[in-house]
Amino acid sequence: MSVADTEVDVLIVGGGPVGLTARALLERWGVATLLVEKRRALSPFPRSRLVNARSMEIYRQLGLADGIASRAFGPEFGHIRFRDTLCGGDFAEAPVAGVNAAIPESPVIGVVTSQDRLEPLLLAAAEALVRFGAELVGLAEGPRDVVATLVDHGRDGARTRVRARYVLAADGANSSVRRRLGIGTTGPGALGDFTTVVFDADLGRWCAGRPASTSPRTAPSPRCTPKGAGPGSGPPPRTRRTSTGPLSSRAPSAPATAYAPTCCGSSTG
Ligand SMILES: Cc1cc2nc3c(=O)[nH]c(=O)nc-3n(C[C@H](O)[C@H](O)[C@H](O)COP(=O)(O)OP(=O)(O)OC[C@H]3O[C@@H](n4cnc5c(N)ncnc54)[C@H](O)[C@@H]3O)c2cc1C
Fold first, then answer.
1. Whose alpha carbon is nearest atom 29 of ligand 1?
2. Residues 260 and 129 in one domain
3. Domain containing 104: what range?
4. Which atom of ligand 1 is nearest to the CA of 134?
5. N or C: which end of the chain has fewer CB within 10 A?
6. Residue range 213-263, pLDDT digits in tens
7. What is the band of 59 on the pLDDT scale with cuts at 50, 70, 90?
8. Is residue 57 part of a domain?
9. What would the mean pLDDT of 152-163 be, rounded to a whole number?
């Protein structure tokens, strides 16, 4: 096997919720890890809405549950509202399971939040090494360990090698680790291509009194999920992003957004 620059017990590939949670748990159990994430920073996109009760139990063990709950949306956002248009009435409504009432078997309840609120808390929950801008591009398995080849996008594509006893493939639905290991998938595969557009706007005029975690709409078929602050929610996000622009700071003097959804369009991307 090739000579490695770094040795570690567990190499975690991917800095999403799975990889970040695994890093925090392994640190708690005294296991040395290195997490590599090909992006140069955490993803700024809100994405998933629900941290369910079982996940909150794990975050409670890590001492994170209260912090996650304090950054979450209020329980009044625990609804999915189906509309033809943003300003139309709801033709269907469904509660988000497990966020509005205590579950007898659990000391916690789930919360409506978003990944751009959750992931910074997970990152801060451990001190183990993280290398952003480092992409796994090769894996060589030996009898007792694995040597991973990384490309460091922050250092002109410099290549380094990491020897690990275990590699944890937390690199998402399109896992390149899975493909490298020849592990297939079942099911229909990709169901479509999507473009995500995140914007901040005051839509309180249309949505006031009907807060929702997600607002799927029939025409022209974008899906809206709230990103900004609403009544009872945590503080407004400090950054915003458009589909083409870089991250930019919200002006400190900008008025609070009463209800700022994220619209997830359905074009290609
Ligand atoms: C627009 C949108 C809306 C969503 N809404 C919901 C929702 O409402 N509810 C819900 O439950 N889920 C939702 N999801 C899905 C949710 O975001 C994912 O299920 C979740 O992020 C999966 O977490 P993960 O840690 O497994 O993977 P990811 O969050 O995908 O993280 C994987 C990470 O691995 C990194 N990576 C990949 N390959 C490499 C490599 N070779 N080397 C280094 N790093 C690598 C990627 O850059 C990525 O950051 C949504 C997703 C999107 C895009």
1. 16
2. no
3. 76-109+191-265
4. 43
5. C
6. 888 877 655 566 666 533 333 333 333 333 322 222 222 222 223 233 333
7. very high
8. no
9. 92
